[in-house]
Amino acid sequence: MMARISASVYTSHVPAIGAALDQGKSAEPYWKRVFDGYEFSKAWIRANPPDVVFLVYNDHANAFSLEMIPTFAIGCAAEFQPADEGWGPRPVPVVQGHPELAAHIAQAVIQDDFDLTIVNRMDVDHGLTVPLSLLFGQPPASDYRWPCQVIPFAVNVVQYPVPSGRRCLALGRAIRRAVASFDQPLNVQVWGTGGMSHQLQGPRAGLINREFDQAFLDQLIADPERLAQKPHIDYVREAGSEGIELVMWLIARGAMSDKPPRVVHRFYHVPASNTAVGHLILENPQ
Amino acid sequence: MALDKPYKDVPGTTIFDADQARLGYHLNQFCMSLMKAENRARFKANERAYLDEWPMSEEQKQAVLARDLNRCIAAGGNIYFLAKIGATDGKSFQQMAGSMTGMSEAEYRDMMIGGGRSIEGNRYIGEKK
Q: Do residues A34 and A17 touch, judged by C-beta distance below 8 A?
């Protein structure tokens, strides 16, 4: 039995969502409207527990400063500590990696012409831990750990130019091939995070574009090949300078089968802090 | 041939590209230093003296002292790095983002609750609203 990718999950990773959870504000009406969209997802993942989550996210000037800026970095370590982003580390468990599968994917994908940076020491910021919190909730003190192993996959979307949508989709396909050749019966999910429309800087801060976001979700489901042709400038102009994080969703989409996926859940809400929250769960056909 | 920068005509937006990153290298690395609690304490105790330890331009230092994030960005700062200054001051990302818009904190928060800033009239510099 080989490893297989059963599903992909897409979600925004707004830091304020983590802060709201950590400060016990999730029942406040403002935040409840966000978390209600994930109630289904928490039940779904309890019923469909992954062995490993391959989690595509971006670092926000925490693990990587301007000293080194890898475009694609795969975390191959046994564990990853939650980063202190300046407010103190989030009170969440240490992230357990899967070094064997991560090394396998690195070797396969690099030989498939994608020049990954291999990282053996890296703190993980809200980009990675907020999606885990949204899907798994806060682990109980009696069993204080995330319920699966996680391979962090960091994409540079901070210093322009970020990788193209086309390259992200193709990379996802290479990851799909790599997972399928791993000789252990693991249930793997690939998560794409970040977005949706938002801009955190300058006089245009606060930009939200619902029409863009909904069209992006439609096309991600139905025609990722065409979506992958969307140029950077369309993201910047239409979805905001930080909305360009959405290219990362194409990596997760590329990791899915070429057959149409089953749309298990779709959610969209404005706002969480400065950002539009989007969330999708797609299952591969059996 | 010069690099194509099609994002120059997006209003109220500075793209953190290689040129901006070069301009802002020391400013952004100063911000990174604030991830350590002891550096945050030293910075708060004497901001000017702490800034003078960094090979930043006078304009960059003045922009930081004034907490003028638009000026910081014009001088090569990037928001994810500048957020470390906000964290040191106990500000949220929403307070930081709002501070760049000319709106009050309450006005900005209400705009977001109302669905955010519309894309209409905000795609191109000089576009009619």
A: yes
